[in-house]
Amino acid sequence: AMQRDSHPAEVPQPAFDRIIQWTRALPAGTAMSAPPMTRIDASLDTGSARETPIRFGSEEKLFGVLAMPTRRPPGAPAVVMVNTSANPRWGNVRVAVEMARSLAADGIATLRMDASGMGDTALDTGTVGRPYAEAVTADVMQAAAELHRRTRGPVVVLGICSGAYHALQAACRDPAIAGLVLVNLQRFVWREGDPPDIVR
Question: pTM for this one?
Fold first, then answer.
């Protein structure tokens, strides 16, 4: 059940619970002590950009990776990359990472986001497995606002499948979004309660 498409996939919680119970039942003294944690710089220099994990949005519950190019032409756009279905910010086979690094080489900043309930965004922000949830559109608008605040340039939103739907909906509501890249847009309208499989 965990290996199905991302939106109907199920987390095998009973299996995880059994692992935790087994670990707790181990005799005392068998655990190894971990070295003390040290704070490190989480940024990554890719040569053409500095990638930094950021928290943003209401109460900073949303998470993303900001890629700021080392050379950014004046007036260059910045791109928000929206989740596809329930896939985390790196996208299927890391497509979002590859695109972000390619864009950075051309001087374009990106924000690879995790919307509500996805990836490293706080779990209490959304319901996993609902790729068309209304909350995701609001998250896209918050991501666009955050990227504009950091770059001061026009913001374009890129989405694939359900991400394209949320990009379109966000642009219809937020005139600050300057452009769209919509790939495989399957719905123009979504009604709360529609089953995700309706897109098939």
Answer: 0.80
